[in-house]
């Protein structure tokens, strides 16, 4: 990601939500919104509590897809009614689930610093997904997509 320009980096730093795309073993896509933190060439997102699932994060479709096929895509975008200000960054990489270790703890801390809702231990004992970014593509109005 070192080749991203300043505007793309600003979008990654300021965005509050992204969209995660996973696929199962039959290549059926699944897209969900996520919150995230980026550190270097790694993006992290939490698997927080889901009331409907009785707190069993293993049953989440995104988790089953990651366990079956770790390839993911993540889109972070900026939308305004003035379409001359549209922009997005597409990140592609490999996801793994971190249940317990120093990296998981550091990622949970980064998420809590970015999102006040996670302060006070809301992510204690919760897994965090690590996405090692292999490719980044950027686009903004008035420019072609950059590989």
Give a short overview.
With 147 residues, the protein is an alpha+beta fold. It has helices at 6-14, 61-68, 102-114; strands at 18-23, 29-34, 37-39, 42-46, 71-78, 87-98, 128-140.
Number of strands: 7
Mean pLDDT: 90
Strand content: 35-45%
Order of H and E elements? HEEEEHEEHE
Side by side, the strands of the main sheet go: 2-1-5-6-7-4-3
Largest sheet: 7 strands, antiparallel
Shape: globular
Helical amount: 10-25%
Number of helical elements: 3
Q: Report the structural category.
A: alpha+beta
Low-confidence stretches: none
Distance between the termini: 11 Å
Task: Explain what the structure shows.
Helix content is 20%, strand content 36%. With 147 residues, the chain is an alpha+beta fold. The N and C termini lie close together (11 Å). The model has no long low-confidence stretch (mean pLDDT 90).
Which labels suit this protein?
147 residues, alpha+beta, 7 strands, 20% helix
What topology does this entry show?
Blueprint: H1 6-14, E1 18-23, E2 29-34, E3 37-39, E4 42-46, H2 61-68, E5 71-78, E6 87-98, H3 102-114, E7 128-140
Antiparallel strand pairs: 1-2, 1-5, 3-4, 4-7, 5-6, 6-7
């Amino acid at each position: 990601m070192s080749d991203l320009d300043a505007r793309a980096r600003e979008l990654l730093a300021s965005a509050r939500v992204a969209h995660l795309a996973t696929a199962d073993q039959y290549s059926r896509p699944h897209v969900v919104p996520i919150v995230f933190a980026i550190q270097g060439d790694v993006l992290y997102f939490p698997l927080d509590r889901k009331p409907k699932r009785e707190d069993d994060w293993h049953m989440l479709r995104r988790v089953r897809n990651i366990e079956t096929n770790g390839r993911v895509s993540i889109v972070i975008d900026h939308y305004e009614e003035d379409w001359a200000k549209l922009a997005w960054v597409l990140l592609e990489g490999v996801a793994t689930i971190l249940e317990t270790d120093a990296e998981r703890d550091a990622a949970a801390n980064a998420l809590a610093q970015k999102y006040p809702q996670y302060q006070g231990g809301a992510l204690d004992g919760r897994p965090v997904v690590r996405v090692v970014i292999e490719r980044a593509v950027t686009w903004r109005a008035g420019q072609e997509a950059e590989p």
